[in-house]
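Shipment paperwork, digital attachment
Item: protein structure file
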Amino acid sequence: MTVLLPTFEIEDSLPGLVAGIDEAGRGPWAGPVVAAAVILNPNCTPAGLKDSKKLSPKRRADLANALWKTARIGVGIASVEEIDDLNVLQATMLAMSRAAAHLPVAPATCIVDGTVKPKLPCPAYMVVKGDAKSKSIAAASIIAKVTRDRMMLELSREFPGYGWDSNKGYGAKAHREGLDSLGVTPHHRRSFAPVRNRLGASDAALC
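Attachment content:
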């Protein structure tokens, strides 16, 4: 079966500089949401860009390193506190807005993975499964994923026992067992039911 890779077809249909935007980390129980905005150089684009989830960790890291050398990139982060205050969808929109704002040059247009449009200073178009269709969105998915994974690796050293170095904050067995034996850390999303349900009644009242 032929696997279709992302192309520049969407970017080529739009005027001016086009930034692809994607996020990583909406589903985990711990850690921030990270978004990236990427403007690729069509004449110097790393080969093999595709949905970050379909790449090995090493391949993602290699592509991310290449992208930082050849593309214009902005990264935006929404904290655990913002996730709990706003809800994870609105925090994701905030991270995407910040990623676009952190680009070194202003894009003429943004193409965003998903169906919900963040607030952006330029026209934006939503692309369902965009990381499988657009090279720019695929690049953004790689940058967001690699950036967040590295953050979770650092947090795993500060808070051992939850398996964040491997599960990246998702609800894997090691994470569930860590919550049950060690309790809730400042990096857990208290608005998420699996975390909230493990809080004591007095702690829950404070969240």
